[in-house]
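Intended use. Records like the one below are meant for learning the mapping from a protein sequence to its folded structure. Do not use them to infer anything beyond what is encoded.
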Amino acid sequence: MGKVTGFLEIERQDRTYLPASDRILNFKEFVIPLDEPSVSKQAARCMDCGIPYCHTGCPVNNQIPDWNDLVYSGRWEEAASNLHSTNNFPEVTGRICPAPCEASCTLNLEDVPVTIKTI
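Structure written out for the chain above:
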């Protein structure tokens, strides 16, 4: 799963947002996503902790460690297929989800959790 020491070596990086002063001028996308290499690095932070509390913290039971590994490996189509196996509308639910999986991440006990929502 991911990079074995990724959670020790890689800092958490969140996506950014356009400033509110720009957002009020139009209805365009305001989330600035991470680039592909950065997303892969964030997926490498997954610890393969044995009991994936992130998985049980997810209301739709997404297989988070599995698709983190697929993203880290660059297997994007398989990751999307895995995500669609438990969630029919990830494009919608991912936007409104408060990310309880991140709060459930084992890494959250001693450090900052994996950026699951960003991935």
